[in-house]
Structures are given as C-alpha cells and as structure tokens.
Amino acid sequence: MKTFLKVILIGTGIVVVVIAIIFFETILHPQRSAKVVEWLQNPEEHTDWAIQANTQCAAAPFQLPTNGLIGYLWGDSFRLGHSHQGIDIFGGSEPGVTPVYAAYDGYLTRLSDWKSSVIIRIPNDPLQPRRQIWTYYTHMADKNGNSYIVADFPPGSNEVYVKAGTLLGYQGNYSGTSGNPTGVHLHFSIVLTGSDGNFKNELEIKNTLDPSPYFGLPLNGKENKDTVPVCTSFQ
Questions:
Q1: Distances from the Cα of 232 to the Cαs of 34, 117, 235, in angstroms?
Q2: What DSSP assignment string belongs to 34-65?
Q3: pLDDT tens, position by position, 130-146
Q4: Which residues of the chain have pLDDT under 50?
Q5: Tell me, what's the pLDDT at 70?
Q6: Is residue 224 part of a domain?
Q7: Mind listing the pLDDT tens digit for each residue in 188-210?
C-alpha cells in the first residue's frame, strides 16, 4: 500500500526475485527504485547504505527507528496525484525479523482494527515546542495481516507512554490487503494534529512533515534525487 514492490518466491523459496513495479510516466526517482531492488537482493554487499536503529545523527532529535536502507523518501511520487507521506526503510530480511523502535518519547495508540500500525503522540514537537505531532509506524505484520507488533501494545491500546528506543514490533510485508504483500519494510511518517486534537489523515502528504530535520538526514525526495541517506556523524 505504501511501496510498489512485490516479492516472488520461486520453487522452494531459496531464490527471491524482487520486482519493482514503477509507473515511469509519473515516478520522479526511478534511480531510487533500482537501489531498493539491489539492496533487497544483496544487502550484505551494500552495508555502507544501511542505517542503524536507535542511533541519532548529529544533533537531530529523533533516533532512527529501524535498521536497513532508507529507500523511498518524503515527497517521492509513485502514481499520478500521490506523493509519499513518509520514508520507507527496508531491513533486507524476512518478515518478522528486523526490529522497529520508537524514534522519540511519546504516547502510543493502536486502534482496534490496526493490524500493522501504531501511532505515537508527541505533545511538544522538539523543533517547534508548542506544536503537537505524531509519529506513525506501519507494515508491522505478515502478508496476511498477522501482527508483528509486540504484545505490550495490543489492538485498542491508547495513550501508552513509551520512551525513545522502546521495541514496537518488527518489519513486515502487509499491504493492507491479505495475500498481496509489499516488500518487507517500515513506513514511517510524522503527522500533524487536527483541530480536534487528533492526528490528521496520514494518507495525504499535506498532513505530514518533511522528516529531514528530525533525523538530520536528506529525506526530502523533491530535493534529494539520487543520494542514499546515511548518517556520518553521530551524537
């Protein structure tokens, strides 16, 4: 649902072919898709592309939420009229293996019908202290919607306080439609608050923030065409 990648198992499953479905008439950055495919096929050959969970880049306020390649960025376009609302981080592992952590302290909610997602309310935006924001994490389930979110946060969880670095779950490949998997990854976004005090609709980019200053990395797809975002200076 967030990223147009399919993983096809051949034979007994020891050969994995990753096919990127790219709509060339609308996608802005096909080079990034090529890197995602290359990473998923051979992550061990591109360790210099990888980010490390629970590290903070330079003076950035957020910790990186998981391990892997930051493949798609905020503002990338996949199809007509749609801009990517966050970042996609590909662990390069099987579903249910690569852990996902909270990027910042806040209050976690998991709606009763959320199979693969949690959202964390941050009362004071570290970059704009009187503003409330939310961090959203999704695809933490297998292709059929069996959740990889840890048992501490069952469906219906509401306003559970978590610290940065708290284990939330594991990267999965649930697309929102059972039996129709995406590539294994975490989709992460920063969501604004509506007039009712609740989080806005994350599916619209206007309701999200560029995550670049929160992570200290070039994560704006409109401004960063070919770079692989990696941290070179840590706190």
A1: 23, 30, 10
A2: HHHHHHHH-GGG-GGGEE-TT--BTT-SSPP-
A3: 999 999 999 999 999 99
A4: 1-27
A5: 96
A6: no
A7: 999 999 999 999 999 999 999 99
Domain that holds residue 208: 5-215
- Evaluate whether residue 227 is within a structural domain: no
Residues 6+ apart with CB under 8 A from 16: 7, 8, 9, 10, 40, 41
Let me know if residue 103 belongs to a domain: yes
Which CATH number belongs to the domain containing residue 75 in this structure? 2.70.70.10
Task: State the residue for tokens 């007994």.
Answer: 12
Q: Residue 61's closest CA among 143, 135, 139?
A: 135
Query: What single DSSP character describes residue 32?
Result: H
For 12, counting Cβ atoms within 10 Å of its Cβ (0-12 exposed, 13-18 middle, 19+ buried), the class is exposed
Q: H-type helices in the chain, by residue range? A: 30-41, 212-215
Residue environment code for 103-113, b if the CB has 16+ CB neighbours within 10 A, otherwise e: bbbbbbbbeee
Please state the domain count of the chain: 1
The reported pLDDT for the residue numbered 31 is: 81
Radius of gyration over alpha carbons of the chain, in Å? 17
Encoded tokens for 31: 């080079």
- Inside any domain, residue 141: yes
